[in-house]
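The protein record quoted in full:

***
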Amino acid sequence: MTSYYFTPDHDMFRESFRDFLEKEVRPNLNQWEEDGQFPPESAKSSARQVSSTSSK
């Protein structure tokens, strides 16, 4: 279904980010909660993910 608000690029970004969360964040979330921080390397990984998605 075509959305008035969201473009195919937006849908692609959402899918890519959802995949990133499932692969990179969800498996580590409990440990990060215990540590009280989000590791810098994960922030960089998410930035690369967003950058590669937006450049397509």
